[in-house]
Amino acid sequence: MKLWGGRFEKKTDGLVDDFHSSITFDQRLYHQDIAGSIAHATMLGEQGIIPAADARAIVEGLRGIEADIAAGKVHFELDAEDIHMNVEKLLIERIGDAGKRLHTGRSRNDQVALDCRMYVKDAAKEAAGLMRELCETLLCIASKHTATIMPGYTHLQRAQPISLGHHMMAYFQMFSRDMQRMKEVYAHADVMPLGSGALAGTTYPLNRERVAELLGFSAITLNSLDGVADRDFVCDYLYAASVCMMHLSRFCEELILWNSHEFRFVEMDDAYATGSSIMPQKKNPDVAELIRGKTGRVYGDLTGLLTTLKGLPLAYNKDMQEDKEALFDARDTLVKSLVVFNAMLAACTFNTENMARGAAGGFTNATDAADYLVKKGMPFRDAHAVIGHLVLHCVKENKAILDLPLEELKTFSELFEADIYEACSMHACLTLRDVPGGPAPGRVQESIEAGQAFLNGFSIG
């Protein structure tokens, strides 16, 4: 008989048991569920709501169950529906009537809300830690390449010279924001809902603050309806995971392009590439492609839960059981992606000579040539037009700007002097962009030092 079956005359249909049960996936909440139950039972004993001896027996029994689950000695029952009822059923079997007192002053509604909050706190802290490791890798690469010239792109067209270090630090900024988002996720989840009951609290004199203290929560929920109905914190995690996956996907897209024969900016390590079953010459960036593909999967987790929640009345509805598979899937996908991406990136070989050649082509110094004329006194819009005509001429002649002799340059403007060749060299184009946040080597070094300071000062939980 089910623990809630007192008012029922018929057994639940087997099809319903299979459809209704969540134990196949929510069993991974066993640690959070047992920790919450230990704190609840401890408080019940301290408050005199249940005998102190029963509270001690419950705590001891729960710890034994947790150890057995961790050791793989527990077989969960589909008929017991979920992790909460499975643990409670095991407890009663092991310690008898004392185990029946555990659920005093508690509902599965506030119990599952507690478990999910604890899980999200753990997941946010885990993700932030992996993001930190990726940021450390980016700092390491950037510090070696503050003066490694490569082309920067807009519209996937060569635009202006930058450095590889500057490019890596752009991604550092993205992932540092992801770390901050996970810190906010943690803070939003760090509110203890137990004591909300099914929706209207309880008549027992619970000490909710004591439970929060035992479980390491910073606050308690302030409305019992919202306490059981709220899944914003799960959506927050899914959103933060989606944004991080988007950043990983953008990075993967660039590495995939750079790894192509057309770019040849990077060489993927053999350990993070695969071959073709028919084309023996192929070395495919499958890891990067998979991460790019899995990004859509995490987006789906977020969109699915938002759609599930959008029409639900207060307070708890069975629809909310759908939050867990989305949460678990997003967490698993994000963690695996961060781990393998970091390893793949650290093993990449950057072809700096090809990057330098790429920067030298495609008129990436055209803006600098226009700025040269501006510094000689020409209005920028006029300088823009002059260099536009000059580039068009070079395209027709299949030459670079600095391939032209000074006499030919002067046919476009008398302001050109011999110093144009130094002013528009790739080295000058990089080093003269000496503004805060710019690609000049000194500025990239400043960014690296600021990034390290951020990591050193970051904490969560």
Helical percentage:
55-70%
Number of E-state strands: 6
Strand content: under 5%
Low-confidence stretches: none
Q: Structural class per helix/strand content?
A: mainly alpha
The shape, in one word, is elongated
Please count the helical segments: 19
What order do the SSEs take from the amino end to the carboxyl end, as H and E? HHHHHHEEHEHEHHEHHEHHHHHHH
Strands of the biggest beta sheet: in what spatial order?
1-2
Question: Could you characterize the architecture of this molecule?
Answer:
This protein is mainly alpha-helical. Helix content is 61%, strand content 5%. The protein has 19 helices and six strands. Strands 1-2 form a two-stranded antiparallel sheet. The model has no long low-confidence stretch (mean pLDDT 95).
What are the main properties of this structure?
461 residues, mainly alpha, two-stranded antiparallel sheet, two-stranded parallel ribbon, 61% helix
Indicate the topology.
Blueprint: H1 14-20, H2 23-26, H3 30-46, H4 52-70, H5 83-95, H6 108-144, E1 149-154, E2 157-163, H7 164-189, E3 191-192, H8 208-215, E4 219-220, H9 224-229, H10 232-259, E5 266-267, H11 286-309, H12 323-347, E6 349-350, H13 352-360, H14 366-375, H15 380-397, H16 406-410, H17 420-423, H18 426-431, H19 441-457
Parallel strand pairs: 3-4
Antiparallel strand pairs: 1-2, 5-6
